[in-house]
Write a structure and sequence with these properties.
Layout lengths: L4 H16 L5 H9 L20 E4 L2 E3 L2 H11 L6 E5 L5 H8 L3 E6 L2 H13 L6 E4 L12 E6 L8 H5 L1 E11 L4 E8 L5 E9 L10
Parallel strand pairs: 3-4, 3-6, 4-5, 6-7
Antiparallel strand pairs: 1-2, 7-8, 8-9
Helix pairs in contact: 1-2
The structure holds S-adenosyl-L-homocysteine.
S-adenosyl-L-homocysteine binds next to strand 2, helix 4 and strand 4.
Length: 213
């Protein structure tokens, strides 16, 4: 579990790549500069950890591409102490970026192995999400709602209604929508009944799966 000067150098290069690709949020770029992505991957992928690519993390899942993590994080407009719900903890890398931005992060994962693996990784890296849940992200976390923002990190066939209900007025829901290819979608809750929708082009995610329990 080592983070060396060499890794820091590679992270600085990765941040330049993200800037070139259009990421402008200084806080997001700083978080990516800090979080040791190589420690969220199987060690056989370590040499590739700072390429702007997705990689397998076991259980048929992937760690999102850094550009995607940065893009979604930027859309969330995270402020310190924001309460954020993440669907799809996976490797925990996106969770770690949000924690580094000062958010109180609640995250749900439906694959038991990943849930266990990632839950035990955070304390080793001194990363402290508020609450990690093993369960179905389609349902959100009603007992902890409402949230300042919600991020879905798997491709969703539709917007789960419970997630819309668990968003504060003024809150932001960032969700990749679609089956084979997803359109990055931002919903802003304007008032109790209305949501404003913005779309941001194509991304590719593993699917948001229905409950298997
Ligand atoms: N944020 C992760 C992305 C992992 S890929 C990272 O940075 O590594 C998407 C994750 O969503 C996978 O781990 C997958 O198991 C999980 N997932 C898929 N459907 C889900 C559901 N219904 N509820 C919770 N998690 C789900």
């Amino acid at each position: 579990m080592e983070d060396k000067a060499r890794h820091q150098g590679l992270r600085n290069q990765l941040v330049s790549v993200l800037e070139q690709k259009g990421i402008t949020d200084k806080n997001v770029l700083d978080a990516i500069k800090k979080i040791p992505r190589h420690l969220f991957l199987d060690s056989s992928f370590e040499v590739h950890a700072y390429q702007d690519k997705a990689f397998p993390i076991g259980s048929g899942q992937t760690i999102s591409q850094p550009y995607t993590v940065a893009f979604q994080s930027q859309l969330l407009e995270v402020k310190k102490d924001h309460k954020i719900l993440e669907i799809g903890t996976g490797s925990g890398y996106q969770t770690a970026v949000l924690c580094s931005l000062g958010a109180k992060v609640f995250s749900i994962e439906r694959q038991k192995e990943l849930f266990k693996q990632t839950s035990s990784l955070f304390p080793k890296l001194n990363i402290r999400p508020k609450y990690l849940s093993f369960g179905d992200g389609y349902k959100g976390l009603p007992s902890y709602a409402p949230f300042d923002s919600i991020i879905v990190t798997a491709g969703a066939p539709f917007i789960p209604q419970p997630l819309m209900a668990q968003l504060k007025v003024g809150g932001r829901l960032v969700i990749p929508l679609g089956e084979d290819v997803q359109i990055m979608t931002l919903l802003i809750r304007v008032n109790e009944t209305q949501f404003e929708k913005h779309e941001f082009g194509e991304f590719r995610f593993v699917p948001l799966l229905e409950d298997k329990n």
